[in-house]
Structure formats: structure tokens, C-alpha cells
Amino acid sequence: MNDWLLQLNNRIRTLVPGKGLIVGAPWFWLALFFVLPFLFVLKISLAEPQLAQPPYQDWIREIEDGLITIKLNFGNYAMLWEDELYRDALWGSFEIAAISTFFCLLIGYPMAYAIALSPTHWRMPLLMLVILPFWTSFLIRVYAWIGILKNNGLLNHFLMSIGLIDQPLEILHTPTAVYIGVVYSYLPFLVLPLYATLVRLDNTLLEAAADLGARPWKQFLKITLPQSVPGILAGSMLVFIPVMGEFVIPDLLGGPDTLMIGKLMWTEFFSNKDWPLASALASVLLVVLIIPFVLMRHYEQKAAEELK
Amino acid sequence: MLKRYPLLFALLFLGYAFLYLPIFSLIIYSFNESRLVTVWGGFSTKWYGELINNGPLLDAAWLSIKIAALNASIAVVLGTLAALTLVRLRGIRGHKSLGVMVTAPLVMPEIIIGLSLLLLFVAMEDLIGWPAGRGQTTILLAHVTFSMAYVTVIVQSRLAHMDTSIEEAALDLGARPVKVFFAITLPMIAPALAAGWLLAFTLSMDDLVIASFVSGPGSTTLPMVVYSSVRLGVSPQINALATIIIAVVSTAVLIAGVTMYRKELKAQRKS
């Protein structure tokens, strides 16, 4: 069996022309424009800000011919550690990312499960309905919530007209609005991988359980849910990681008390022109995100293996 | 199924309502005569008229379309090569590292990609003088970097589920690998390439954060214009723009979806 696979593999390899170029072109592109830039972030995070263009002082400098000085500045990291603002922002991002991932799961799991259970010829159109909003502009979809959530917006108007409230609820520019925006924007990211896992689950176990008299609810808890755990975890990271660095949603829907690290980085960079501090923030965020990223890769591979 | 799990399908329906409510509200209010969201001032297309006369916005839209089209074309080539490597060149040097490098941009916060690329471009200009300044070129380079990752995912899944027997038959009959690739493999993965191109195009059209970091004076893209007017609150012109974007995208996706669906039905009937 293995021999046969190996042979097939070798044969398929010969199908592809110019192997070097095939690996090389995307590899070098990503190495140059995706990996290498992180080294510059680390480098600039140790530099000192100055009023010039670019607004930082290189810490490797040549004073006279051949004489090089290195002057590292750890002040940016010290400031991140000492100033509560940055710790609160990191914690705020974590809180918002974790809670919204949970709500995405709560809404997304039943959706994915319903699509997976529907007749075969329904699945494609139902999935397309989930993907379609993802294709229209993210910025504009977030903006749409301003009109709905603001004090004299659609939601308050509706709630007051049916007599549920007398005073408009203040939702826009609060954390609630940020949660709504995040869950709304990232829901498709979770539904798709969950659907992919659920649709390929082994049905024989479910049938056996049903034959033995297990109720549908119990079948789900004992069989379907445990089998879909790798899909749940991989999909959750797909939401959690980008939300940790989200800028647009807290900026448009959040208020001054919505502290998130992405928004803070934007302010440091564009308003305060403090490139070194923004770089230090980015480095910290990057290190924090390595753990969920490794988890995601692990469970993605596990989910893929289980399907084989 | 609907009868067996009524609660589940009710939840699915609610989920769709949540996904589409904001979109429909944008469309409806783009035809509202009144500037206020809650007041219906009668049907009007005046915001579309204002949109057409908004010069800076149209310039930005044109720039975004140019960058997006170029970006999509380059991203499809690089993404396809990456997908070929990941699916068919297991064990070759760089396979594993490419796998990691191509997954990371999918989840990496945009704000980190934007900042890191800007610092790279500044350093590169200092060292080798290219790219000179920031503008269309740097936006394009940045967009290709993250959109090729999405193209890779799409093409990769297509390649992984593809029947290789036809390719093998052609090879057995003595066709050269290059010929086999262009005559058989490429047409077979063409739908995935088209989907990848479209996705890369929309991702580029939509990007605010990364473009804000790496753009320069004179290269304002559409999302940047939208963002600066949206920050000030609800703007009916943006509702009109949103409606146009939604109309174009849903038509394209519907056409693509129906074509693929029909093909699949045909294939199922044949087998």
C-alpha cells in the first residue's frame, strides 16, 4: 500500500514542470514581503523616536569610517509594561476576541449544522448565502451598523414604536456595539470550517445510536459534538487571532472606553507619529498571537487527518 | 430534514436575518430622500446623482479598481504555484515553511501586516532605492502578499480533490509534463482560478488598514475615501455606493454560483 502511494507520489511529481520555480516564486515573495518585515518591526521597536523623516533614530550608526555604535532603546517596552493603558488595551482585545469568538460559535454552529443536515442540493445555495456578505465590502458592512445602532437609529426606532422602551438605548460607541460588529463580520469565517467538518462526519455512529434508542439531543452531545472539536477549535482561532488586532470595528462602533490594541497602535502611528512605540506594540501582539496560531495549525491538521 | 429539526432551521433562518438585515437597510436608505435614517422622505435617486459628481471618490474608485485587477492577476499566479507546491510537491525543500508562510497572512491582523510592510519599504528605499516613495506600487506589493494566501487556499482544495487519472494517462501516452499542465491540469482547475481571482480582487478593493500604512500622497484608494466620510457619521452617498457594490458583487457571485451548480448537476447526471 505504502509502496503504491510512493509510486503515485513520484509520478505526480513529474507532472509538474520546473519544480524550483514553482516552490521558489511564492516562497521568496512571502519571505521578502511577509517574514522579513517582522524583523524590521523588531528592529524599529528598539529605536528611539525623533522628529524627522522617518521618525526614528537607527540604533546601528556609523560615526566615523568603520566605527559603528549600537544603541538599543528598551524604553518602548518598559513603557508598555509600566503604563496601564497598554496592559488594559491588550486585556481588552483579549476579552473582546474571546467573548466574540464564543458568540460566533453559538450562532455559527447551529447554522453550519443545519446546512450540513439539509438535502444535498440545498447545501450549495445555503452556503452561498453565508459567503455572499463576506464578498461585499467589510468597511461598508461595519458602517451599516452605525445607522442601525445609533440613538436615533433603526433599532431604537423599532423598539420604541412597539413600546418596549421609552428612552433610546445607548448602544453605539459602547462595547456592545463592538461585539455586535465583530460577531457579524467574522461569522462566515466560523460557519465555513464548521460546515466542512460537520458535513463529513461519519453517520454510521449516529444511526447506531438512533437504533439503540438514543434521543436526538443525546446523539448530538455524545457523538456529533465530540467529533467536531478539532473543527471548532481551528475555526475559533480563525476568528480569535484577527479580532485581537482589529481596528476598523472598535474605531467605528466603539467609544473612547473601548480599549483595543489595534486601535491604540493606529493612534500611536498616525496621530502621535511614534513609530518605535507602535512597533513595540506590534511585536508584543505578534508574540501573544503565536500560541493561538500554533494551536490553529495543530487542529487544522488534526481535523484534516480525521476526515481521511 | 426541516420537519425533523425545526429548531435548528429556525436558528439558521435567524442567522441569515442577522447577516442580511444591515445590508438591506443600506439598500433601502440609499433611495431615501431624507438624510436621516429614521425618517422616510420619499423615494429618490439623488444620492446616486451626488455620487456620480463626486470627483475625488471616483478617482479613488478608479485607482482601487486598477490596483485590484493587477493584484488579482499576480496573486492568482503566485497562489497557484504555492498550491501546486503544497499539494503535489510534498517533501520538496521549502514545502513545510511555505505551508506556514501561506497560512499566516490569512489570520495575521492587518494592522501588523501594514506596519511591518511600511517599515520594510522605508528600509528598502534607503538601501536600494526601490520602491521609490510610497504609492500604487507599494499598495500593490502589499495586497499581493495577503491575497495570494487566499488564492492558495481555494486552488489547493481544488487540486487536492482532483482526479489525477487523466493527467497520468497523458503522461503514459508520452506527453511532456509542461504540455500536460497547460492542456489538462490548468483547464481542470480553471473554476478555482476564477474564484481566486475574484476573491483577490474584492479583498484588494476592500482593504483600508494595510493601504493606509503603505500609501503615499496622491494614492488615495476607495476605502480610504469611504472611511474618512463614514467617520463623520451616516452618509447617504456611501449608502448609494454600498448598494452599487452589493449589486455588482451579488450578480457576479450569483452567475458564478449558478454556472458551477449547473456543471455539477450535469456531472452528477453523467455518472
Automatic annotation (TrEMBL), chain A:
The chain crosses the membrane at residues 21-42, 89-114, 126-146, 177-199, 220-243, 275-295. Keywords: Cell membrane, Membrane, Transmembrane, Transmembrane helix, Transport. Its main location: membrane. It is found in: Cell membrane. Pfam families: BPD_transp_1. This is ABC transporter permease subunit. One of its GO terms (cellular component) is plasma membrane. Residues 90-296 form the ABC transmembrane type-1 domain. It comes from Thalassolituus pacificus.
